[in-house]
Amino acid sequence: MTPTFQDARMTQSAKNRMQNLGFFIFFIIGIWLLTLSFFLYRFIVLFNKLTKGLEVTDLKKVLEKILARGESNTEEIKAIEKRVDLVEEDGKFHIQKVGLVRFNPFKELGGDHSFSLAILDSNNSGIVITSLHTRDRTRVYMKDIKKGESGFELSVEEKKALANAEKSR
Fold it and tell me: Is 116 left (phi over 0), alpha (psi -120 to 50) or beta?
């Protein structure tokens, strides 16, 4: 049997298809290897970052150290949060609001040498200090403030100082 021209042509076509199929398979395997190489490279870089400065290169030991460090950090963060909460709670009782009003209580004397000073905490509790200045003497008065109210009658200037302090924060 001798191959005819048509048979030879079909054989050449089959060879081309086989070559194309081989090239396609080679191309897919190449892409697959490049992808695996990329992810392996990224894994090695990450591993080197994790083990930087450590003499241990066993992944299990490295991960155990990282987990232990994470647990330690978590405990330290909780302790810091407790401390911050205590400081914030304590800070509510410190001076946070201040209001000052200068005035002249006696029209015959010049200058605003008298003043009312309101000093409050976050609950609007504290004191109002008033100083009345004359040529002969200076008198200083203090009145307690509880939640924005005083047990004593407040002067107009003291009320202004208290209002200024309440607005200051």
Answer: beta
Domain of 18, in residue numbers: 5-89
Looking at the structure, tell me whether residues 84 and 101 fall in a common domain: no
The sign one gets for the Cα dihedral 78, 83, 84, 90 is positive
Location of structure tokens 């081989």: 22
Beta bridge pairs of residue 138: 133
Query: Which among 144, 142, 157, 140 has a CA at the least distance from the CA of 105?
Result: 157
pLDDT digits (tens, 9 = 90+) for 31-78: 999 999 999 999 989 878 877 777 766 777 778 888 888 999 999 999
Total domains in the chain come to: 2
- Domain end, chosen from 89, 108, 127, is at 89
